[in-house]
Design a protein that fits this description.
Helix content is about 70%, strand content about 0%. It is built from 18 helices and no strands. Keywords: Membrane, Transmembrane, Transmembrane helix. This is DUF3667 domain-containing protein.
């Protein structure tokens, strides 16, 4: 029961109140004195909104070890004795999305760090006459595609050949990071540099757009070609999003497809940290919006059972809550205990089996159909939900990319 600290008078209008009043009969304000210490406020918050009492204690064991029990009890009308499914969902989702957020950010940071290490590791070791510091400056200043091209084209492995393989824009970048001694060592002549790099890139874009060989490609091949082109150009700082978009083959495409490609370019070129933060911010809402859809699919699959939609929704809340706890725990284990690939693979497999088994048994208990019919419907639901989840993630990533604009 919610804790109220009642007063003898309404703090809003001053009306005299009796202890039986939860709300002021004059203005309607709640009769609750919040002039209390911070510690008491925190204690009341957990008591009021998380209700860690006998109700919670009675719910724990059935929730974990009796699939479908809480759903059946709630649908039978026995609701006071157990934690409300909505409250349970929000408590567990706080745990899961916090852990998922930590893990996702950790993975992104590791990927960025590894990519940086790989780039820094390209020290152009085959070039003679360059000291270690200069090599590192070159590899840090140039993008990875440029360095890869240089390493692929090097034959003699001398400084003169390196300079010949640098385009004008790359030389400009090096001039910003190298000191005068290093510039002299590389023999970079300022007079040889021009400012027509952007014109060159625009000409290349026009060449891509007007390439007659592209017109003969099938739609699937054009799509694949567009994917590859974006991946190849996304790290080129000299190209704007619009220039990359204009280089794609979008002839005979719908407005939605054009919007898709435009958003995809923005998403792929967005800062991974920012994109991850926006994605994680929107993810809880996305999963919450999927719950009623999940319940609707249950309603369709069990249409002949004449079960009210709200009962399917209660079942969906319990299933997602259990999945959040198990998956959240497994993520913790993989983050701190089982870090190698073999161990994480086994943890992921065991987690999937546990969630699937629990959900299947819950279906048997809640809907009361035979094991074969239940298995068919369970797999059909799983197939539909995984595809719906994948589509939702794609949409959510695009929305997150749009938020970065």
């Amino acid at each position: 029961m919610r804790i109220r600290r009642k007063s003898n008078g309404c703090m809003n209008c001053g009306h005299t109140l009796d202890s039986i009043y939860n709300y002021c009969p004059s203005c309607g304000q709640e009769n609750n004195d919040n002039n209390i210490s911070f510690g008491t406020l925190i204690k009341d918050f957990f008591t009021n909104y998380f209700a860690f009492d006998s109700k919670f204690a009675r719910s724990v064991l059935p929730f974990f070890f009796k699939p479908g029990f809480l759903t059946n009890k709630y649908n039978e009308g026995k609701r006071v004795s157990y934690v409300h499914p909505v409250r349970l969902y929000f408590i567990v989702s706080l745990f899961f999305f916090f852990i998922f957020s930590l893990a996702s950010k950790k993975v992104i940071e590791e990927q960025i760090s590894n990519a940086k290490e790989i780039k820094n590791a390209i020290q152009l070791n085959s070039i003679t006459g360059l000291d270690e510091e200069t090599r590192k400056k070159i590899s840090d200043a140039l993008d990875s595609n440029t360095i890869d091209d240089i390493n692929d084209d090097l034959e003699n492995g001398n400084i003169e050949e390196l300079v010949d393989l640098l385009d004008e824009k790359s030389k400009e970048k090096l001039l910003k990071v190298l000191d005068s001694t290093e510039v002299k060592q590389l023999n970079l002549n300022l007079k040889e540099l021009t400012l027509n790099s952007l014109d060159t890139l625009n000409n290349q874009v026009d060449k891509w757009v007007n390439d007659p060989t592209i017109a003969s490609l099938t739609k699937e091949k054009k799509t694949e070609n567009n994917w590859n082109r974006i991946e190849r150009l996304k790290e080129n700082d000299d190209l704007s999003d619009a220039m990359i978009y204009d280089s794609l083959d979008l002839e005979d495409t719908s407005n939605f497809e054009r919007y898709f490609w435009n958003q995809y370019i923005r998403t792929r070129r967005s800062d991974e940290r920012l994109l991850t933060n926006y994605f994680l911010k929107n993810l809880p809402l996305m999963m919450l919006l999927l719950l009623p859809i999940f319940a609707f699919v249950l309603k369709v699959l069990y249409l002949r059972r004449k079960v009210l939609y709200i009962k399917h929704l209660i079942h969906a809340l319990h299933l997602h809550s259990l999945a959040y706890i198990i998956y959240g725990t497994s993520i913790l284990l993989m983050m701190y205990l089982f870090k190698d690939d073999d161990s994480t693979g086994w943890v992921s497999f065991i987690t999937f089996v546990l969630v699937s088994t629990y959900s299947y048994v819950s279906f048997l208990k809640v809907y009361g159909q035979g094991w074969f019919k239940t298995l068919v419907k369970f797999n059909l639901l799983g197939f539909m939900y995984i595809n719906l989840l994948g589509l939702s993630v794609v949409i959510e990533v695009f929305i997150s990319g749009h938020d970065l604009e």
